[in-house]
Amino acid sequence: MKPIQNIEHTNGTIKAKCLEMSQILGLSEPVSPEVLEAAIEDDTYAHNLLVSRKEPAFLNYLLANPPKLRSSPELLPQDKTNLELISKASQTLLKWAKTGFSVVDDETLERRENACLACPHLSEPQKLVQKIIPSKEINQKIGQRTGKKVCNLCGCNVSKKIRIPSESCPDKHPTQAAMTRWGEPA
Fold first, then answer.
1. Is the pTM of this model over 0.70?
2. Predicted confidence (pLDDT) per residue in 127-142, tens digit
3. CA-CA distance, 101 to 131, in Å (whole number)?
4. CA 111, 96, 144 angle in degrees (round to 5)?
5. What CA dihedral angle connects 90, 93, 94 and 95, to 10 degrees?
6. What is the 3-state secondary structure (H, E, C) of the chain?
7. What pLDDT does 75 receive?
């Protein structure tokens, strides 16, 4: 797993890194850029590639089917239907009900909101279901500084999501490994 993760930090073109990864896996042809990116981003995928080096059938399957990454365009909420967003919201509501509809403390709320305000994925709602969710207008009160804005990664209304203890940020922390952008364990 370590050799594949280290490719990200080596110098060279993507083509050279794809060739380097293929050498680690004992292949004669370079891996695709999608496989390289998925292995760098997903530790489990990288591990599975390494363990299946001696099993061509498994390795070929993994190489042909790299996991979709969160930042992949096909996973962004603007491509999700209103029905998919409603389904996700329903699941979240059910999980929240299991916590007794509790909300996070003020310190957690402020930390989460500050992270979202600094995040490049914070945007105006695009889908109908996102636009009709009642939210207060932006003001300087903690918990209301994002107003009606949504997260481009998950599609959630940020001012609602940051209050729910069972929710987590879908993005990795930019500097802290194994943490979300909210500074909580991933």
1. no
2. 888 888 888 888 899 9
3. 23
4. 40
5. 120
6. CHHHHHHCCCCCCHHHHHHHHHHHCCCCCCCCHHHHHHHHHCHHHHHHHHHCCCCHHHHHHHHHCCCCCCCCHHHCHHHCCHHHHHHHHHHHHHHHHHCCCCCCCHHHHHHHHHHHHCCCCEECCCCHHHHCCCCCCCCCCCCCCCCCCEECCCCCEHHHHCCCCCCCCCCECCCCCCEECCCCEC
7. 45
Question: Has residue 107 got a pLDDT over 90?
Answer: yes
Taking the C-alpha atoms of residue 52 and residue 38, their distance in angstroms, rounded to an integer, is 16
pLDDT in tens, 48-83: 899 999 999 989 999 998 887 655 444 455 578 888
Rg (CA), the chain: 20
How crowded is residue 50: how many other Cβ atoms within 10 Å of its Cβ?
A: 16
Alpha-carbon 66 to chain mean position:
16
Spatial separation of the C-alpha atoms in residues 186 and 45, rounded to whole Å: 17
Q: Are 62 and 48 in contact (CB under 8 A)?
A: yes
What interhelical angle do 33-41 and 14-24 show, nearest 10? Answer: 70
* Angstrom distances, CA of residue 88 to CA of 63, 74, 157: 30, 16, 12
What is the rounded CA–CA span in Å between residue 150 and residue 83? 16
